Amino acid sequence: MHTYKNKTQQASQTIDSQGPAWAAMNPESVVRMQLQNRFNTGLDIAKYTAQIMREDMASYDKDPANYTQSLGCWHGFIGQQKMISIKKHFGTTRSRYLYLSGWMVAAMRSEFGPLPDQSMHEKTSVPALIEELYTFLKQADARELQHLFKEMDEAREAGDQVREQAAQQKIDDFETHVVPIIADIDAGFGNEEATYLLAKKMIEAGACCIQIENQVSDVKQCGHQDGKVTVPHEDFLAKINAVRYAFLELGVDDGVIVARTDSLGAGLTQKIPVSQTAGDLAEQYNAFIDGEEVTSLEQMKSGDMAIKLGERLIKPTRLANGLVRFKPNTGEDRVVLDCITSLQNGADLLWIETEKPHIGQIAAIVNRIRDVMPNAKLVYNNSPSFNWTLNFRQQVFDAWLEEGKDVSQYQREKLMSQDYDGSVLADEADERIRSFQKDAAAQAGIFHHLITLPTYHTAALSTDNLAKDYFGELGMLGYVREVQRKEIRQGLACVKHQDMSGSNIGDDHKEYFSGEQALKASGKDNTMNQFAV
């Protein structure tokens, strides 16, 4: 391990070797700048975080209590504040990641303005957000280390060697805010070459984990909306291969691929793949196609097509736009085939997009997958598109009804009502929501829990509350009471927003570069001194 002390000695030797021309260089200042910029490139980050994810996956395989979590972030500052908060409250970032949601990129980061989740946003906005997130996380490192350097300098000036050593130990033991990002590449934004090119950009920006879904790229829909169309397995596997090649080309050998299936809610296919041999993937995919058995050419009209499925000739059910319908109630079987096939062909983790957060439903599917692939693990969307309150109250209602308990005081279709808050049923439902991640990790193979777009909702909610108060009767008290006073009392570092934005880091750099003549922003007249945080 390179300690602060021996790194300073190395820097001193490098500077001394250059003679008088480098006399203005302070070795300790060099080391501080190096430590504040631990990762020189996005690839450095991707390699570092890929190893973390692999270790976490192995840890989960040993004990499902070791599941991981993330929240979706639409801006670098949001991701930064999340990780600063995690370090403050829990002491470590271990097992906590960031999630980059294609939904939020479309809704909040496109030059077209707000867009639906249909892959209409600029593909370059995805790697740009990855780079932005890591820029803010690296700045969080620099800021926290700058405070530790100041703590050490103050101890030196006071002649307090014990305190100085303690500060130096904190610097040596410093844990970075840089964590894995699970990054959404949607359906690949085009053909497999387009997927490869975008995956490269994402990896170069720092992504160690790329999530790709089996929808048709040019008609991609949000997983919680209707009209989803899936691709044959051969097409999806080509894109998984494209992502893996991108990882390997860039030297991120343990990069992670999440294969997402939307088949549970997708009833259509755009292509009918060509079967080469009996029982191959194409034939298995086509077996799910809905259609009318053809026993006579009289059944065929102009433009109709027919395919042979086993010993039967089928006229597929086609919509006016040419899309082909799957048989009803085959979604779960298609999901199982999708997942097994993806894991057998290079994917590392699975994502099954469900219509509700029901552990029994998820576990039933995962158990079927694990019959073939015992180490199958899920990334699961704890989606804001679910009405969690209503879903879990109805789950409790149904369970109690099945157990023969008296539910006469509850109306199932009205369980969302505030009238039920505080009832025994509502409390039981809340407890199930509280333990959902732990229980689903243990019972349903979920390695990673994420919420895709929580900070979209928190931004809207906090802004609504501030606007209501500030522009209403409370005026400035609306901001002071509900924002600033809480920031101070909860110890939020961003109450000193100048420091958070890098002002003190800049002062240090000016002093390194200009010495005593540096014009610094800090000092007695800086109003940030009013804050104790």
Write up this protein.
This protein has 533 residues and is an alpha/beta fold. It has a domain at 38-273 and 327-423 and 435-456: Phosphoenolpyruvate-binding domains (TIM Barrel, Alpha-Beta Barrel). The protein contains 19 helices and 14 strands. It has helices at 4-16, 27-35, 42-62, 76-90, 102-108, 125-157, 161-172, 192-205, 233-249, 281-286, 331-344, 359-370, 388-403, 424-434, 436-443, 454-470, 476-489, 497-500, 503-514; strands at residues 68-72, 96-100, 181-184, 209-213, 229-230, 256-261, 268-269, 291-293, 307-309, 312-316, 324-325, 349-352, 378-381, 446-451. The strands form 3 sheets. An 8-stranded parallel β-sheet has the order 12-6-4-3-2-1-14-13. The radius of gyration is 28 Å and the shape is globular. It starts with a helix and ends in a 19-residue tail after the last helix.
